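Issue 218. Parser rejects a valid record. Input:
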Amino acid sequence: FEEVEVELAENALLTLYTDGLVESRDQPLDEGLAALRAVLTGPQMELEDACDFVLSTLDTQHGEDDIALLMARIQGLPAEAVGDWTLPREPRSVGRARELARGQLLAWDLDDLVDTTELLVSELVTNALRYGEGEIRLRLLRDRTLVCEVW
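Output the parser choked on:
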């Protein structure tokens, strides 16, 4: 599979689905996709209501294929809620990643999470060094929870 990055607008609706939702013996794929797009261009709804509306509006009773539908509303984080760093692929990046994580957590007044996060970052960056390729990315996201990502 090819990796593709797409920028989505704040509050955009991301819809993932299987082909059973948009294609059947009686409905070609292009017609099913057009019908789905038409349903999704209606007024903004809560996600559960939007899923129900899609499933009740489209022909989902053909029984020919499984149907799966997953919808998400895109809500970005403010810049001050994200710590994002690129580190060189070298052993000293493990220590540097710990320093960056510690500094960010202290700036966010999350002192209680520093020790655990440093340990986690150390393990993840070590694994990235051992098993990954190229530069290492460390990202901390502060929302309702703290998310630590390394790749």
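Fixed in the parser; the record now loads. The longest strand covers residues 136-142.
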